[in-house]
Amino acid sequence: MQRSTPYSLDVKRDMANNRVHASLPDPPSQSEEENQEEEKAFGRICAELESVDLPLGTTLRSIYDDQPNAHKRFMEKLDARIRNHDREIEKMCNFHHQGFVDAITELLKVRADAEKLMGQVTDTNRRLQDAGREVTTQTEEVIRCRIQQRNMTTTVEKLQLCIPVLEMYSKLKEQLESKRYYAALKTMEQLEKVYIPRVSQYRFCQIMAENLPRLREEIKEISMSDLKDFLESIRKHSDKVGETAMRQAQQHRTFHSAVAKQASMGHYTKPVYSLNGRTHTHNGLMMDDDMGEEEEADEEILTAHDLVDFSPVYRCLHIYTVLGDRETFENYYRKQRKKQARLVLQPQANMHETVEGYRRYFNQIVGFFVVEDHILHATRGLVTRAFTDELWNMALSKIIAVLRTHSSYCNDPDLVLELKNLIVIFADTLQDYGFLVNRLFDLLFEVRDQYNETLLKKWALVFREIFELDNYSPIPVETEEEYKVVVSRFPFHDAEVEKQDFPKKLPMSQSVPQIYTQVKEFIYASLKFSESLHRSSTEIDDMLRKSTNLLLTRTLSGCLQNLIKKPHIGLTELVQIIINTTHLEQACRYLEEFITNITNVSPETVHTTRLYGLSTFKDARHAAEGEIYTKLNQKIDEFIQLADYEWGMAESEGRASGYLMDLINFLRSTFQVFTHLPNNNNDHASMSGKVAQTACMSACKHLSTSLMQMLLDTDLKQISMGAIQQFNLDVIQCELFASSEPVPGFQGDTLQLAFIDLRQLLDLFMVWDWSTYLADYGQPTSKYLRVNPATALALLEKVYRGMKDTSKKNNIFSQFRKNDRDKQKLIETVVRQLRSLVNGMSS
Questions:
Q1: pTM metric for this prediction
Q2: What is the pLDDT of residues 38-71, one digit of tens each?
Q3: Residue range 116-165, pLDDT digits in tens
Q4: Cβ atoms within 10 Å, residue 591
Q5: How far apart are the C-alpha atoms of 843 and 832, rounded to whole Å?
Q6: Which parts of 345-437 fold into alpha helices (H)?
Q7: 422 closest CA partner among 348, 355, 328, 333
Q8: Where is this region: Disordered (predicted)?
Q9: Cα distance between residue 768 and residue 786, in whole Å
Q10: Which of 3, 49, 132, 313 counts the most CB atoms within 10 A of its CB?
């Protein structure tokens, strides 16, 4: 191979750095400047050709693709360049030829020494190989040991990296077996992020890494199963949790009540009233009946955390939080608790029958929300205040609807009162946990109305029983102790009665103090419902007065009205009822004082409701009076029905009829009973004094009317003058009775005027004074002013028919017509005139 000269190397380097495919030069006819450019272009092309590293295809193509005949000029330039290189080579060879010859000569001299040295080196190498063979063997052994040592060191290092992974995995297994799932998840996290990446190239680590997601899912399933067991368990424990929370709230309320009462011990204490062996001390609105609650043992009250193991919730929450699926857990928990809330809010069908049914219902609800409140404050986000408020609002609407429905079935006031106490404790308990309970206290006003209705029904039975057992006679008092007992039960004050010696009788019957006592018992019972309602004394006073008014105006009034209408209640009982209602009416002011003492609200307070006892007892008294008049008239009618007149008798018996004498005797004895009616100077009692006068006047008028109707009965066709005389004797006895003043207080002959119509009619027939009657008819001074022409005509026709019938029977009417023809003509004339008067009145 031809050795490149320095010049050729320089040319190649220059061509490599300035590789340009220049165009071929133009024909020789160009200018000098163009020739120079052509020279440069051919020079660059030659340099490219001389460069063995560059491809020649492009260079050669540029030569032939350029201007016509350019390759000829290039060949000429190339030949010239070859000649120049040959001259340079020749000069260089001539310049180095002597040196080359000298070098060859020296090399030949060295050749022999080199061969000798080669032999020595070969011999030395052989001996060295023989001597180093054992060393080589030992060296290989050392190398092998060193490799083993290195492998062992590497293995130890790798094992030191793997052992922590295995230990952590073993720890993970132990944690899973011991159900420490949250710690197991933390261990998994360390394995994934710290330990396994260090030895990820090993297969067992890959298996571990593949198992970790499956273990996480198992942990999720197990923790969810524990949560379900917890939710099922909490349903069973809600009753106990609620019972404990409500008992604690009740003890707190009792404690605060005791503190408030202790603080007010220095204030004025109202009187003590003792009813049925129970003592009611009124200090504000605190009743001594509640003092027993303060004596409850201060036993340790367990909280929800003590009764319920919340660890499954915490554990499950932490697990799902670590796994990044907290939202799923929260949604599931809230959904399940909503379902449980709906189940808890479903009452038993017979819940209204006993207070235990209501207590279990409230305990379950309180337990549910106590648990939710604990979860709210312990988990920070599992449930929110908005969620619990939503649950409570839903529950509150359901609770109110349930209580409205079931309380309406309850007819026992004691059960309604216990229900009210449970609602108050229920509301106070949940209020302590931050829930709004205003609607529950509003519901209590509806329950209060139901309670009042049940009280009214109960007291209606009490009143009826009192009225049925009453003997309706004045209370006999044998000794002063008995008198004090009666006065302690009923505010009776009568100076005249107090002056009388024992034994004596009080004007009212035994039912009066019993009714008064029961009204006070009703007030106490109504007051019990007003306790703990967080209402002012004025509101409680107003509620008491309104409920008492309902008792008086509706229940007691209704019982009195029914009593008065009963058939077995006679005139004596009605008289006693009038006396009783008068005393009860007077006692109403003491009932107002009684309510004032209980509530500490002055009766002069604006808008204070008054008791309506005055109108209640006044209406009852009026009804009793009306019933007296009715029964007295009925009794008169019974006697009248016993009348057995012989209307065709020739002469009277010469004495009054037996039935009428019995009737008059009955009226005398009856009106003697009216002397027991109070006739004091006060307005209310003086009204009762007029009852006897009104009853007597009503009886006389009714008797007069009944006798008149007997004469004018259309079924009675004829009457003899003897019957008229007998009837006249009876009317005379009635007039004697009226003039004997059976009831004091009548002026003059007022009572006798009740029989004036009968008297004038009978006088007209007895005297046979028709001329006077017809002459004076229509005159204010007429002797027979109260005799109606129609009445006189009807009776005269009956007498006339009687006279004719008697004459026919005795066969003496012909003689009568001969002797008394003028009288017959007179009767006929009177009849015609009376008919003309009647016709004139009708026209």
A1: 0.63
A2: 677 777 777 777 665 666 666 666 666 656 666 7
A3: 899 899 999 988 888 888 888 888 899 999 999 999 998 888 888 888 88
A4: 20
A5: 16
A6: 355-379, 385-407, 413-432
A7: 355
A8: 1-40
A9: 16
A10: 313
